[in-house]
Amino acid sequence: MVYVIRRLLQAVFLALVMSFLVFTGIFAVGNPVDILISPEATQAERVLLIAQLGLDRPFHEQYLIFLGNVLQGDFGNSFVYNRPALGLILERMPATLELAFAAIMIAVVLGIPLGVYAGLRPGTLGSQTVMAGSILGFSVPNFWQAIMLIMVFSVMLGWFPVSGRGEVGEFLGIRSSLFTLNGLQHIALPAINLAIGHLALVIRLARSGTREVQSQDFIRFARAKGLTEPRIVIVHLLRNILIPIVTLVGMSFGGLIAFAVVTESIFAWPGMGKLIIDSIRQLDRPVVVAYLIVIVVIFIILNLLVDLLYSLIDPRIRLDGAKQ
Amino acid sequence: MTDATTNPATLAPERPVWRIMRDFRKNPLAMVGLAMLLVIVTAALLAPWITPQDPYDLRSLSIMDSRLAPGEVGFSGISFWLGTDGQGRDMFSAILYGLRISLMVGVIACTTAMILGLTLGLVAAYFGGRIDTLVMRLVDLHLSFPPILVALILLAVLGRGLENIIFALIIVQWATFARMARATALSERGREYVEAAQSLGLSRSRILFGHLLPNCLPPLMVLYTVEIASAIALEATLSFLGVGLPATQPSLGLLISNGFQFVMSGQYWISVFPGVALLLLIVAINLVGDRLRDVLNPRNIT
Asked: Is the ipTM reported for this complex over the cut 0.85?
């Protein structure tokens, strides 16, 4: 329990530090007055507005006001949409989460069988193709993969739409494009694009796990007992290689959300990632600040969860942490 | 013996280098990678002299040549092996000029990040205690965020620009180097030569940089190679998204980005060929890096 509280306090401290860094960075970069006030304004009007916006106060006061507003969920209004910045981001979040979820499903559902196959039959042509493919998956820059996917499957073959989210269906109260055919067509390419890097990783983990487990006594015993090969693989082998893969999937969820920035921009997927890139380009500062704080908080929570799960699974980690 | 330990630079001159080169050559795939890398780097360095046109000299461009398919002969009589872009720019020339920028950004950022990370890692490992805890906490914190996110945060705050993206890449990468340098230095610290240097009464900085540093270099060289590839890929990604380099510094990422709009209308070459160049560069660096890892680690020699 002490450990949990310690970690929670660390997380809160980290969030504070990050908010300070982001605020200082934005503060140092430029004067928002130039964007907000029309160039025709007189000097008196300028001074009045600056005082109204609180920009004449010292740095630490401005920061405290900012922090107070942030704690109440107020990041100011977007310059472009003229709506609360936080609302804009939360509105886009489901689309991003949906994309990340679809990508993880693809990586796991395709990656584990391919990796196990490559591990069981090393040296065969199929296995070498899988491994070469996974190396390529690591090397090819994500955004270029996306362009190639669009070029081949949308422009040349015309199988999938080029961009957008498509129809959104509702199932058990959850709204998602995974529930309509049109939505599935739209999500296919972006999800594959986001999945490829992780697919390669899952393949490698499944392969090395399979090779390691395969030579252990309980597998040899199962073989000696005369169990069928599918039963050995599914019941005995799979269960023992899953732990590292599940860990990886859990830990990489945050990375997927971050990388969705690239995928979303290319496929015009209306998620948080596209919003942040558009906002950076349009100098929409409140949205940028709100996104940065939101994503940092998401990451701190994810890291905290992973650490807590670890300490549940492996008590030694907790002991090490307490010693320092 | 004393001579050799006090100055590792003179330790068995040339011979380790020859061994490394000999071992390196045993792997044909790595040699292909090295050859590719040499060709790409040479072509990029010689770009102003070997390209058919200066792609950013507007006088040499003709709008009549715009969006020609690969292999077509242009209005002015040049044949465009890789086609032209929307402004009639020869893609081959643009790619070579783009490679120069991509390579330059990657190498400068990665080298600075390595020097910074190496220094911090060595200092942390050698002095231990509070300094070590502080540096490593910072490293752990840093590595718990994905690189693209860190770079995006920095560029969102700083804005586009050559210096800004180099700075962002340095910030993204130093922690990886620091962790590796510390781990290596920790295992080297207990060796006899460090003890010998200490008992000779050498200054701390001399032991650190004169003795510990050279012995930590091999694994770091491998990391350096691989990280250059990832720096180049990250820069291309950020430039593609429009938050990296400005339009006046057309790296490969920007070229791909400019060509993206034409992909929809089937003019694939404007986007595809810069991408192929980027891919070849990254694969070549990774092949060389992989082999270096095997060669520099005596336990891995097969």
From this structure: no
